[in-house]
Structure formats: C-alpha cells, structure tokens
Specification:
The complex is a heterodimer. Chain A is α/β, with parallel strands linked by helices. Helix content of chain A is 29%, strand content 26%. Chain A is built from ten helices and 18 strands. In chain A, the strands form four sheets. In chain A, strands 7-11-6-1-4-5-12 form a seven-stranded parallel beta sheet, sandwiched between helices. In chain A, helix 4 crosses helix 5 and helix 6 runs parallel beside helix 9. A nine-stranded mixed beta sheet of chain B has the order 11-10-9-12-8-1-6-7-13, sandwiched between helices. A two-stranded antiparallel ribbon of chain B has the order 2-5. Chain B has a single domain, classed as Rossmann fold (3-Layer(aba) Sandwich), CATH 3.40.50. Chain B is of the alpha/beta class. The chains are: A alpha/beta, B alpha/beta. Chains A and B meet through helix 4, helix 5, strand 7, strand 9 and strand 10 of A and strand 3, helix 3, helix 4, strand 9 and strand 10 of B.
C-alpha cells in the first residue's frame, strides 16, 4: 500500500472530534482544541472541529471560541444518542471529502469505539491513548507517543504513508485551550447522508450513575494516599489535608484494591490521569503505573518514610518522615501561613 | 448459534520489569497468560452456549507464534468446541489495522457466524482497536465495553459501560461484541476439559495462503503505523529534599507553596 506524494499532499488541516453528550462538550474536547491548535500552527495549517448531534449549533460557536478556524456541523435527529454506525459512516464520508491531515479523538468510551471503526473504513493508521503529540520539525509528520506494557515503556508511533494521521488522546493529559469569545471562524453545515436503517443498534436507555465524589481530573489540588497509610482510617487524615488546601482525595491502585477507598479516586495507568497544580503523594512509593498517571502535575510533593522511594525521583519537594506526624504539622503550618509569610 | 471468540496470549504486564541499565523490557521469566478481557469474552460465549443448548458452538481463534497454542488449549479445556491458530511469518509485526485484516480474513474462511466476541483490549498494548476494526472488515454492527448481556429471540440486549454509567443497546446478529471484566467471572479449566483439550481436540493452524489474504495488507510492511522509537519514561529532574525537624520541613513547604502562589 505505497502512497504517492500527490496523495499525501491532498490532505490538509488538523481535525478534532468534538464529542458531545446531551448537548455538552466533553472536557477532553477542550484539551484537544488546545493541543490541536499547537499542532496546526507547527504544521502551518488550520484547526477544524467536527461536531455531530441533534440541535447542537450553539456548541459550534463555543468551539470557535476555543480556537476552531472551521467547524463542520452535522445535525440530525439520528444523532440524538451516539451510535457507532451513525457516527462512523458520517465522519468517514467527511474525511473522504475534506481530507484532513491529522485527526484527534478523545480516548473516551465513545472515542475508543468510534476511532478504530473509522480507521478501518478510510484505511489509515490509528494510535491509541496518546499522552504526547509532537510535530517532526523536518518532515512535519505527527509523532504520537503512548504508554505500552502497563506504562513500563513508551513508544513513539508514526503513520508515514496513510492519511489522516489518527490518534486517540487520553483525557486529562493535554492542557485545555483558552476561551476567547471574540474569535471568529466559519461554520460549515453538512447534511448527513444517513437513513434510520443504516443504524443497526438501538439505544434503549442511558443510565447515569450518581456521582458520590468530585472528579479528580478537574481538581487543581490532589492529596493522594497509598499503602503507607497502613490502614483504611488513614484516609481521614488525607481528607483533612485535602479539605484544608481546597483539594480532593486521590489514591494509588494498592489501596483501591484493598478497598480502603473507591475506584473513582484512583490515579495511574489503570485509573485516571491527572495534572493538577499541586499533587501531594502521602505514603505512595511511586510504582511506574502510578507515576504514569500523575507525573505531569505542575508541583509534586512527596511524603514517605522510605528515603529510597521511587516517588522522590519525580517530586519537586520531598519530606522523609512519618506521614502521621508530617501531615498534622503541615495543617498547623497552613493555619500559621500569614505569620510564616511575614517571617521570610 | 455460532460464536467465534478472538483471544490473545499476552505477557502478564504486572510482572514485566525494566532493565535499569539497558532500559529494555525484561521478558525472561514473565508468564504468558490469556488476556483478561478475552477470558471474559470466552466465558460469556460459553454461558450463551449453556443457555441456548444444542446447536450452539464456540470457536476460538488467536493470531500469534506457535506457542500461542497454549491459550487455545486452555480455551478448549474451559469448553470451547474448536480452535484455530493463525500463525505465519507474514503476519509478524502487524499493527492493529493489519492484525484486523488477518483475523477478519480468517473468520471469513472458517465458517459463517452469529456473534464475534473479543475482549475490549489486551493488557500489552491497551489499544482496544482490533475488535471494531474486525467488525468493519466483516461489515457487521459492533457494541464495545459490554458489561452485561442477555439474548431475546433474534435480539441481543447489552449494557455498554460509559464513564459515568451505562447505556442499554439492542442489536441483531450478526454482531461483534467486546467484553470488559465486569461482564462475568471466568471459570477454571475442568479436569475432563483438560483431558479433552490435550487428547481429543485438535488445533487447526492457518497460514496466510489458507485465508486468502493479500500479503500487502498485513505484517510489518502492510501496517500503516510504525514504531519510530521506544523508551522508558524518564523521571523528571531531581527536586528538593527538605531537611530539619518535622516542623521546620512543614513550614518550609508551606512557605514555598505560598511563594509560588500554588496555595
């Protein structure tokens, strides 16, 4: 399947799949807009969003304010719920007609259902769950980096001879685009060539589970506990510190597996990827799978008894000590913050 | 009903270690296992067979080197009726796109089917791509992230997991489904099953000629994606270890965070 330079040259622009559920953009879309803008400017091309839905025109304006030069807007009653058939057929046709060079999709449960189906339809490569995207300064190809073997190894993948270069991107990894309501862009309305018979699955019901906890991916400060807490009750202390600094509680896989805390708190390769402003790791040794989920945090603070713990290798500030002594003292120091600031 | 289950042999990634000097994967002594999500797909296929009774068959297929036969024997010892090993040097180095071409061609060459069952993803690559790509090659509907399933006449009703809940989907056969571990708890091999799997049952080996696939559509050279480099994640620069008494360290930390406007 050798592809000619003429074939490659037909493909222009960076596309982002603007996944929406119930008329709201998924947070990962804003992250993809930020990343897509960076890639588009490095290649020297435009950033476009692909928006499917029923009555979602207002989201097109929102996408423009997040940096889209063009929005392909495709509205139909058939897009009220996501269906694989409705979405992959429509988007594959758009790709064949408008020929994007790069296509980014959030690695959500919907994105991971849709993207491989499209890649097999338009016959191009797809790289899953990317955590880093770059443009090769020489040949302008997309360098797609992703973890493999449970985060033990990173691989940089290229798609040299097929277009578009498709990636799904892990939610929570890329920086969000800034919103600028004064931006202008073009909305291109496309009518889907789709009949109800094209959709072979029928969505009978969508059930939302009640969320008992805040979303750790949206938090600016995370205080996370690990095996070093020694007991389930240790999380009371973690919660106290989290409350004091206005953060939320995170956890390592070990303590989730031990059922000290629920899975929605889990950070890491099999949990969530987070990049808060401050990540305080308490009694977490720093297994590679955990680091994979939090190492891009702006400031990492590690508290651990073992001075050899892996977590200190990536920490900005390390404290070796018993967390049951250190955390209460940090809370006291925080109470005294005004005094302390004056003394510096 | 005819069910085909696609399975993969994977290294147990929880046991994989990195050579600290060379920065490469240490695979020696790492056990190979049946991929966990695939195990759930197989279990569900066997349960459907038990529910529907006579006339329902479960066929397992894997692509891999000759030693991948182990998981086919395991699947037959759990109750699968027949097994195919897709093995040929022509498939080596395939990415997901090229792998799906080979598996879909093999499925077409074996028999007709009602359900193709895959695991959502394999723990070595975590891509979750091969299932939907096979569905596209076969021209059938797909439902991924299946967390529960029941059969009503010609219809299959499944719950598909979402990040914040699930959706209930109705679909007719033929269909490709991908299983997540919440779907069930896989059974162990039975003693009689093990006896049958090793003494009575046969594994059929398929090469690229047997499935009639154009070699340009598979293997390393047929893969649209290429690995440019692989590396171990590099730790970021060494930070600062705070020193002094617990009170001194805590005070220093709070002052630093305040100065950087982080709190």
């Amino acid at each position: 399947m050798e592809r000619t330079p003429e074939y490659l040259a037909q493909y222009k622009n960076v596309w982002v799949f603007a996944e929406q559920r119930n008329g709201k953009l998924m947070p990962v879309v804003i992250e993809l807009m930020g990343e897509g803008k960076k890639i588009a400017s490095q290649i020297g091309t435009e950033l476009c969003a692909v928006l499917l839905g029923s009555d979602v025109k207002k989201l097109a304006d929102e996408l423009i304010s997040y940096g889209a030069d063009k929005v392909y807007l495709c509205e139909s009653e058939l897009f009220k719920n996501y269906t694989t058939d409705g979405y992959y057929k429509t988007i594959s046709e758009l790709i064949n007609e408008y020929k994007p060079e790069v296509f980014l999709i959030g690695a959500t449960h919907i994105g991971r259902d849709l993207a491989p189906r499209i890649s097999a339809t338009v016959d191009t490569g797809l790289t899953a769950d990317c955590t880093k995207l770059e443009v090769d300064p020489e040949d302008k190809k997309l360098l797609q980096t992703r973890p493999a073997f449970g985060g033990n190894i990173m691989a940089t993948i290229v798609c040299p001879k097929h277009r578009p270069q498709m990636s799904t991107v892990r939610p929570g990894v890329m920086k969000k685009a800034e919103k600028d309501p004064s931006r202008t862009g073009k909305i291109i309305t496309v009518s889907p060539k789709l009949s109800p018979q094209d959709i072979r699955t029928k969505v009978l019901n969508v059930v939302k589970m009640v969320k008992t906890n805040v979303d750790i991916q949206q938090a600016e400060i995370i205080v996370a506990g690990g095996r070093g807490l020694g007991k389930k009750e240790g999380f009371e202390l973690i919660e106290k510190l989290a409350e004091k600094v206005g953060g939320v509680v995170g956890a390592s896989r070990a303590v989730v597996d031990s059922q000290w805390i629920t899975q929605d708190h889990q950070v890491g390769q099999t949990g969530k990827t987070v990049r808060p402003k401050v990540y305080i790791a308490c009694g977490i040794s720093g297994a590679i799978q955990h680091l994979a989920g939090m190492q891009d945090s702006d400031c990492i603070i590690a508290i651990n008894k073992d001075p050899q713990a892996n977590i200190f290798k990536i920490a900005d500030y390390g404290i070796v000590g018993d967390l049951y002594e250190v955390i209460p003292q940090i809370i006291k120091s925080l109470d005294n913050i005004d005094e302390l600031s004056k003394s510096v | 009903m005819k069910i085909i289950v696609c399975i993969k042999q994977v290294p147990d990634t929880t046991e994989v270690r990195i050579d600290p000097v060379k920065g490469t994967l240490i695979r020696d002594g790492v056990p190979s296992i049946l991929n966990p999500d695939d195990n759930s797909a197989l279990e569900e296929a066997l349960r459907i067979k038990e529910t529907l009774g006579q006339g329902t068959t479960v066929t397992v297929i894997t692509m891999g080197p000759p030693q991948a036969e182990e998981i086919l024997r395991q699947a037959m010892a759990m109750g699968a009726d027949s097994a195919y090993l897709l093995s040929d040097r022509a498939f080596a180095g395939s990415d997901t796109w090229a792998t799906s071409n080979a598996i879909a061609a093999a499925i077409k060459s074996i028999d007709n089917f009602d359900i193709v069952f895959c695991g959502r993803q394999a723990i070595d690559g975590d891509t979750a791509q091969v299932g939907p790509q096979i569905a596209q090659r076969l021209g059938i509907a797909q439902v991924t992230y299946v967390q529960s399933l029941r059969i009503e006449g010609n219809s299959i009703i499944v719950d598909r997991a979402l990040e914040d809940g699930y959706e209930t989907i109705q679909v007719n056969t033929p269909v490709l489904l991908t299983a997540i571990k919440e779907l069930n708890t896989p059974r162990y091999m039975s003693i009689n099953g093990i006896f049958d799997a090793f003494r009575e049952k046969e594994i059929k080996v398929l090469g690229i000629k047997d499935i009639g696939l154009d070699p340009a559509l598979t293997g390393l050279t047929g893969s649209p994606t290429q690995v440019r480099k692989s590396f171990t994640p590099e730790p970021k620069g060494k930070g600062e270890m705070l020193t002094g008494s617990v009170k001194e360290m805590s005070d220093q930390l709070v002052i630093k965070l305040k100065q950087k406007h982080l709190i």
